[in-house]
Amino acid sequence: MRVLLPLPLGEPYDYRVPEGLTLSAGDYVLVPLGRREVAGVVWGAGSGRLAPGRLRDVIRRFDVPPLPEAGRAFVDWVARYVMSPPGAVLRMTLGAPAALDPPAPIVAYRLSGAAPDVAGEAGLRLTPARRRVLDVLTDGPPRPAPELAREAGCGPAGLKPLVAAGLVEAVALPPAPVPVPDWRRPGIALTPDQRAAAAALVGKVQSGGFTTTLLDGVTGSGKTEVYFEAVAAALAAGRQALVLLPEIALSAQWLDRFAARFGTRPAEWHSDLTQARRRRTWRAVASGEARVVVGARSALFLPYADLGLIVVDEEHEGAYKQEDGVVYHARDMAVVRAHLGRIPIVLVSATPSLETVVNAESGRYDRLHLPERVGGAVLPHIDLVDLRAAPPPRGRFLSPVLADALTATLAAGEQAMLFLNRRGYAPLTLCRRCGHRLQCPHCTAWLVEHRLTGRLKCHHCGHRAVLPSQCPSCAAEASFVACGPGVERIAEEAAALLPDARLAVMASDLIHGPAEAEALVRRVAAHEVDLVVGTQLVAKGHHFPLLTLVGVVDADLGLAGGDLRAGERTYQLLHQVAGRAGRADRPGRVLLQTYHPEHPVIAALVAGDRDGFFAQEIAERRRAGMPPFARLAAVIVAGPDRAQVDRVAQALGRTAPQGEGIEVLGPADAPLAILRGRHRRRLLVTAERRLNVQAALARWIATVDVPAAVRVTVDVDPYSFL
């Protein structure tokens, strides 16, 4: 049999099936590899390239359901498309290798039924703590040791002697069942537009087969409640549903809404789960017990037993692009997974990506539209603050117009939000005497001051340092000054302006995991916070009824540079953050601080002309021959030795394919020419959509001799140009 291993290997390895063991494609097995044993998946019949005597035996088969055919086809498809080894893709499917073995039994404790005088016979003194343990166990079911110690108010010392004396005995508890969402529970009353959209999605789920539907609705239009009806239809059919979210750490309100609709929370999958919870969730997905999974992009690769629906919420979000390891875009791969599984997929957004818009306009995707907010709420009014006419006071970043609006909003008992998509206190720290800038020693990037943690940090490699007391260039004492604002600096200014306001900062480096994020969101929703200052995390899906003012500190941020998607991304981000205002019965207002009020992105936001902006962007992409009307791929050459990297990059440049329908630009320094101590060069490939760009890239790269220390990475459909 051929067995694919979760290693960066280009193909499965052949193994012999020993007598007495029956294997089928998809089975999880343990096999020898060199001197170690590795878990893998049976990929099919043997290749026959090795003589039987040279084959090593499969050690054993794991007692878990096999990886379904659609899951195996998905691994192969992704590997071919993103040009990564199939084994590296399989490693994402085996996201919890320890889950292949059955979970250890849960040990709990109960009274043994022995007479109380057993304690005296064993020479055991019944201390108050030990008596509390016995009292707790007198009523109720067996309890695990941590729960028992918590209820009895004692440590392990209060339990172990009772077990040794025979008064308490250990028992093995069966695993707790996975809660099943109740699809029969009624949802909230839907508007006519919502009912029509929900009926269309339910029909697609009930009919089965592959379809892609864009659920396009303004912010606050109730898109989540609409696709919940499709999830209910999948559950009613006995199938599983997957909902992808771009920021699982900030999904508290989504999870509450799901629990209100279905009576329990779904299974979660993201990087902050404990290993024990990952094991339980992986097995529950593979067995079909986990009926609904909500997760970050990696949840797409779980081994679903019977997937019947995929939903990609906020489908336009850049967070769906995986930049390290296997480089892929989860939205695009989710469409592929739905196609291979012959199931419907729903792409959800108030500001869809241009790729999705073009697919909808061409008829490849169906489109459902929700044009109005629910509950009588109206979209916020957007005003410009021209910083040339109303500049902030010297050394500050909030204009008088925005400062006055903040004061008035909080005085009215309402909430406000300040948005700046830049973490930390200041993006640049320099010496006021000689101009020396503090730079990361491992990257071509400036160190960002994080005053709340007292550190300088590189946002690319994570390097941390303390602000030096002397300038390393001119030795001046205490000469460093912060240049420009980050959210911490804006929060400092806002606190000085509004000293009585209850203020919270929401940024990824200040929120450590879903629990902290959930607690902060609940505080804001409960009006325990008056003013939120945050990065893009505040833009995604939050519903705060009392939040009526959003101030964008720097609406121009992100518009500069040569990024293909700069305008699109900036429009989407500002539109989304603006949508946090006025989501209930109080009208909302948005103030955009800008030096470029005439910019097409800013003008479209103020005019509320989303479709006009998209049409203009699409026309420009078509004229330029850029995605979605052409194929794009980046080839990145990286290594610790600059000369070696340059030699490989130049060799690739000399041998680059040049012909009808394909063009290669470069090599050139990447914008981050050094990242984590590795020098980087880039080549950019544009090709007509009819061409098999992966095949052309594979032939091209194979012609160049690449030293072991140099890595050549291909990013098909790049989203980041750093």
Comma- or semicolon-separated keywords:
alpha/beta; 20 helices; 7-stranded parallel sheet; Rossmann fold; 23% strand; 30% helix; 722 residues; GIY-YIG endonuclease
> Can you give the helix content as a percent range?
25-40%
CATH superfamily (homologous) name of the largest domain: P-loop containing nucleotide triphosphate hydrolases
Strand order of the largest sheet: 11-12-10-13-16-9-17
Query: What is the mean pLDDT?
Result: 92
Unreliable stretches? none
Structural class by sheet pairing and helices: alpha/beta
Helix and strand topology:
Elements: E1 2-4, E2 13-14, E3 28-33, E4 36-44, E5 60-61, H1 69-82, H2 86-93, E6 106-111, H3 118-121, H4 128-138, E7 143-144, H5 145-152, H6 160-165, E8 168-173, H7 192-207, E9 211-217, H8 223-236, E10 240-244, H9 252-262, E11 267-269, H10 275-287, E12 292-295, E13 307-313, E14 321-322, E15 328-329, H11 330-341, E16 344-349, H12 354-361, E17 366-370, E18 381-386, H13 400-411, E19 415-419, E20 428-431, E21 448-450, E22 455-457, E23 464-465, E24 480-483, H14 487-497, E25 503-506, H15 514-525, E26 531-534, E27 547-552, H16 566-578, E28 589-594, H17 600-607, H18 610-624, E29 631-639, H19 642-654, E30 662-675, E31 678-687, H20 693-702, E32 711-716
Please, could you describe this protein's structure?
This protein is of the alpha/beta class. It folds into five domains: 2-93, 3-Layer(aba) Sandwich (GIY-YIG endonuclease), CATH 3.40.1440.60; 114-173, no CATH class; 192-375, P-loop containing nucleotide triphosphate hydrolases (Rossmann fold); 377-422 and 485-619, P-loop containing nucleotide triphosphate hydrolases (Rossmann fold), CATH 3.40.50; 631-716, 2-Layer Sandwich (Alpha-Beta Plaits). It has 20 helices and 32 strands. The strands form eight sheets. It has a seven-stranded parallel β-sheet, with helices on both faces. A six-stranded parallel β-sheet has the order 18-28-27-19-26-25, with helices on both faces. The longest helix has 16 residues, at 192-207. The model has no long low-confidence stretch (mean pLDDT 92).
